[in-house]
């Protein structure tokens, strides 16, 4: 069961001020989940979750998470500035970027963030960008290559992803070389980072990744004498977008990592290593809805419901064919007697929020809640067909509504043409 965190009555009030479509986030859910996350890793004194800013790049969301003890994981100039302007700087910032322009490394160093190097050649690149002096604390990204599987044998084996095909990170030989060089260059606190699989629905992903990184950390210590200060498990803990599959249990995941820590790091005398994470989806996705209104219906070879949101507001179904659960507000308990395609207005036939979906009978003017849009939702928005970004609203813990980003206007859309209307050609 997926139950919306707002009701039809609340939406009817909201639209008097903020018309549909809009993204809305649930402050209570965000805070409770962040607390559960921190509790699951409270066995590790240095633990920190660096929220992946790209998932939901809104300063109000970043501040709420910061109040709950989270930092930010940035990967561009805009994300670094967002973090800085949200009051999140220093070691609360991880910079896990790739193909990075020099000025972004400079910006990260300026706000005191932790640069996570994607490649061994970036040591010289950063050295030059920073005028010959590296920060005290840095990280390197690891790519083990091959295919990443969970489970030992037979049917239990689940292929999670294909790191050998991924552009990120360094090989084992390179990363060992990189640590030696960084230590020679005076970097005192080194860490490792790796991201092997995205949106995993398994309590075993983090523990399996942790074991790989912990064993490598022990090997690095044996080979180089360098004892890593932190191990960053990055993103990838997923959520179930469908109502039937069980959700990940962060307490079980935290315990799984704890077990690997006690088995591998502690016996190697590395019981003081801090664990970092960079979750985006897990921290925010379930706590966001895209609310849209049914404005057209048509009956041709299939039944269509046209809504006032489109893929420009939520790209995942069009881009990945992703399932997003849909609830017709006020009809939560009505029987699903119809089969609809729920579609947006783009001149693209993949602009479909739901395909062949069993839903209650939808009437024009009904408000439709698209679930799990809190991460990689608004942030992936674009302006195709001249469609504008929606507003972002926050449902506060006291049930009041705060607008945390206004909707884009046509003036915003045309702003980059300022002065270009009358070009003589
Ligand atoms: C996208 C990304 C994340 C967050 O991934 P989720 O799947 O949202 O948890 C974390 N770290 C890096 C480097 C990323 O690129």
Could you describe the 3D structure shown?
The chain is of the alpha/beta class and 425 residues long. The protein is built from 12 helices and 19 strands. Helices cover 28% and strands 22% of the residues. It starts with 7 loop residues before the first helix and ends in an 11-residue tail after the last helix. Residues 52, 54-55, 73, 96, 195, 198-199, 234-236, 278-282, 375 line the site of pyridoxal-5'-phosphate.
Features:
425 residues, alpha/beta, eight-stranded parallel barrel, 12 helices, binds pyridoxal-5'-phosphate
Summarize this entry quickly.
The chain is of the alpha/beta class and 425 residues long. The protein has helices spanning 8-14, 27-40, 59-67, 77-85, 102-110, 122-129, 172-184, 205-224, 250-265, 281-284, 316-320, 410-414, and strands at 22-26, 48-52, 71-74, 93-95, 114-117, 137-141, 148-150, 158-161, 189-193, 230-232, 274-277, 288-299, 303-307, 326-328, 338-343, 352-359, 367-370, 391-395, 401-405. Helices cover 28% and strands 22% of the residues.
As a whole number of angstroms, the C-alpha radius of gyration is: 23 Å
Unreliable spans: none
Structural class: alpha/beta
Sheet bearing the most strands, described? 9 strands, mixed
Average residue-wise pLDDT: 96
Shape, please? globular
Query: What is the number of beta strands?
Result: 19
Distance between the termini: 59 Å
Count up the helices.
12
